[in-house]
Write a structure and sequence with these properties.
Layout lengths: L1 H21 L6 H20 L4 H20 L17 H28 L1
Helix pairs in contact: 1-2, 1-4, 2-4, 3-4
Length: 118
């Protein structure tokens, strides 16, 4: 179980580090960089085997509900990709941000389950 947590923590840590880097050129990096940096921190802690279950529960619910809030703000589905990765519409940005939060939610839930199975 320890090896699984180590590997998944490393994979999610790299993914969220890339997410954090991509947010640097976002119109609102002051919001999104700390969100993904927190996900990087939890992934690295999971990699070390030192997760905090209470923190993971709080982060899980915050990210699920924040993603849901962003999702309901979408006025029309325009997909994730339209002519590359550049942001074409506000709806596209909302969809990407919501799914990014849900990916983080999934990692928090996974790390919580792995912690409880130890």
């Amino acid at each position: 179980m320890r090896n699984v947590q180590f590997i998944l923590g490393g994979i999610f840590g790299l993914v969220f580090l890339m997410f954090t880097y991509w947010q640097l050129n976002d119109p609102d990096p002051i919001l999104w960089v700390p969100v993904y940096a927190t996900a990087v921190y939890t992934a690295l802690q999971a990699m070390r085997g030192k997760t905090n279950p209470e923190l993971l529960i709080v982060l899980f619910f915050l990210s699920v509900f924040a993603g849901l809030q962003l999702w309901v703000e979408i006025t029309a589905w325009e997909g994730f990709l339209t002519d590359g990765l550049s942001m074409k519409t506000h709806n596209q940005e909302l969809a990407r941000e919501a799914v990014g939060l849900w990916i983080a939610s999934g990692s928090f839930a996974l790390f919580y389950v792995l912690e409880k199975r130890k």
